[in-house]
Structure formats: C-alpha cells, structure tokens
Amino acid sequence: MVYGDLLIGRTSSTCESCQKINSLVIEMGRICVDIPDELEKKLRFKVIERFGGKKGDLSRAVEEAVKKWVAK
Predict the structure, then answer these.
(1) Domain with 20 in it
(2) Does the reported pTM lie above 0.85?
(3) Contact in structure between 66 and 60 (CB atoms under 8 Å)
(4) What is the pLDDT of residues 9-44, one digit of tens each?
(5) Domain count, the chain
(6) Is-contact 11 56, C-beta < 8 A?
(7) Which residues of 56-71 are buried (b: 16+ CB within 10 A; e: fewer)?
C-alpha cells in the first residue's frame, strides 16, 4: 500500500545514486538527515495531501522545499 509505505518510511531496496534512462546517466545526490519524529509525520501527511503519496513523492517534496530555501 503506497500510503502505508510512505507513512512508515519504507524505501525501495533498488534505490541508487544514479539512474540509467535510455543510455543517459542522471546523477543524483543523496543527503541523509535526522529530523524530529513529529516534523517527519507532518511532512509525510502533507506529501500525501499534496501529491497523493505515490513512489517518489517524498523526494519530490523535499527537492521542492530545498530549492525554495536555497533560492532565498
């Protein structure tokens, strides 16, 4: 279940730093951070509310937030 996986924080075991798409390599950075449990819970619910809770939505939301923060 997508919603359950997103809420409890399961990640795919096939997640890699780089993805090959039609012989084009897209490099992706990885940052591991610790945040308070309550903030994580609020973030996950907001992601479901805004994007629907599909695979990749949490990364999409965090990327959007970081871009906004860096642009300030």
Answers:
(1) 2-71
(2) no
(3) no
(4) 544 444 444 455 555 677 888 899 999 999 999 999
(5) 1
(6) no
(7) ebbeebeeeeeeeeee
